[in-house]
Design goal:
This protein has ten helices and five strands; from the N terminus they run αααααβαααβαβαββ. By secondary structure, it is α/β, with parallel strands linked by helices. The longest helix has 19 residues, at 91-109.
């Protein structure tokens, strides 16, 4: 009886990749910990801790304010009063203001001045050229509800000091040949005390000081300041730069070629 001939079918071997996958599968099956863990909550769920930590929360709140992500707000949260007070009285505030002035200067030096007086720069006044920090030190650094009568009494004293970095920028722009316009939300009846304060702080030789007149009362700051910039453009001026501590100083229409936002976490003007 003849024996069957041995099979000549080729032997099959596992490929290296398939073998690796098989080993991984066996290892994961024998382990109590899966190789890949899926979280039911994001691993970055530290939000609650941040919200409970006043320091972290208030630093983040200040960033949201300065970047305009906070939108409209009425007063500094009570839990952030100490942080705002410390910031406004610190070298950090001075440094933040100085870096804005440095970038402003860098931009201004690159502008080709026509020499005919048409090249303009627009400055806001409060917390831009003048500092009302002495007033806000006595009123909770913005944590108190704004009292217009009380603030007007401070304005009448005409004692607000200059912001050092803005003062240096102002003088440099004049030397470069820019025509300086001062555009403020203050009212026309405050013209004399405002001019007196500006001169007391060392400012001089501005082209025009623009204040709210009777027809401007009640307008949102963004609208009012946009309209005034538009009037300057219609008079032949090119607004190369604009400096202000509020987004409403800078946004709207007839905006400058470059706008520079100074820090101010004490109050918001729409």
């Amino acid at each position: 009886m003849d024996l069957p001939a041995p099979s000549m079918a080729p032997r099959r071997f596992l490929s290296p990749l398939l073998l690796l996958l098989l080993l991984v599968s066996l290892a994961s099956a024998s382990s109590s910990q899966p190789l890949i863990r899926l979280y039911s909550k994001p691993p970055f769920a530290g939000d609650r801790k941040v919200l409970k930590d006043d320091g972290l929360y208030c630093e983040s709140w200040r960033l949201a304010v300065e970047t305009n992500n906070a939108g409209s707000w009425d007063q500094v949260p009570p839990r952030c009063e100490q942080l705002v007070a410390a910031y406004m009285s610190s070298d950090r505030y001075a440094s933040d203001s100085a870096i804005v002035a440095n970038y402003s200067s860098e931009f201004a030096r690159a502008v080709e001045i026509a020499g005919d007086g048409s090249d303009a720069w627009v400055f806001d006044i409060d917390e831009t050229l003048l500092s009302n920090l002495p007033y806000y030190e006595a009123h909770g650094f913005g944590s108190e509800v704004f009292d217009e009568n009380s603030f007007d009494g401070w304005v009448d004293l005409a004692e607000a000091p200059a912001l050092p970095s803005s003062f240096s920028l102002y003088k440099e722009l004049q030397q470069l040949g820019f025509t300086i316009f001062l555009l403020t939300g203050r009212s026309e009846h405050q013209r004399n005390v405002t001019e007196t304060n500006l001169l007391y702080a060392g400012y001089s030789d501005w082209k025009r000081l623009i204040l709210r007149n009777a027809t401007d009362q009640g307008k949102p700051a963004t609208v009012y300041k946009s309209e005034k910039r538009s009037e300057l453009e219609s008079q032949g001026y090119t607004i190369h730069g604009s400096s202000g501590d509020q987004w409403s100083d800078l946004l709207g229409f007839a905006i400058a070629k470059r706008s520079f936002k100074l820090p101010n976490p004490m109050y918001y003007i729409s």
